Amino acid sequence: MRGGSHSGNIAAPKHVLAIDLASAVRMVSKTPAEAVGLNDRGAIAVGKRADLIRVHVAGDVPVVRSVWREGHRVS
């Protein structure tokens, strides 16, 4: 994939120093899902899989509190 790393990962722009939480989540969910053709996931919308995380921000650090996969809580 053009712009990917030598290990095949998708490259993130190096000039991104600070990013809000919503943009960060989109960067690691919707963007990669679309890049590999997984159009049924990556966003919270009607017709998409219900893969979700609940995050608590402790200070400046986001901490994952719960995880749902296909609408079922798994942790």
Descriptive account of the structure:
The structure is a single chain. This protein has one domain (21-73). The N and C termini lie far apart (33 Å). The chain has helices spanning 21-28, 30-35; strands at 52-58, 61-69, 72-73. The chain is of the alpha+beta class. Strands 1-2-3 form a 3-stranded antiparallel sheet, with no helix packed on it.
What attributes characterize this protein structure?
three-stranded antiparallel beta sheet, globular, alpha+beta, 3 strands, 75 residues, single chain
**What ranges have pLDDT less than 50 throughout 5 or more consecutive residues?**
none
Helix share, percent? 10-25%
Query: What sort of overall outline do the alpha carbons produce when their principal axes are compared?
Result: globular
Instruction: List the quaternary state of the chains.
Output: single chain
**What is the string of helix and strand elements?**
HHEEE
Helix tally equals 2
The major pleated sheet works out as:
3 strands, antiparallel
In total, the number of domains comes to 1
Roughly how many Å apart are the termini? Answer: 33 Å
How do the strands of the widest beta sheet line up side by side?
Answer: 1-2-3
Number of strands: 3
Spatial extent as radius of gyration: 14 Å
Strand fraction band?
15-25%
SS-derived structural category:
alpha+beta
Average residue-wise pLDDT = 83
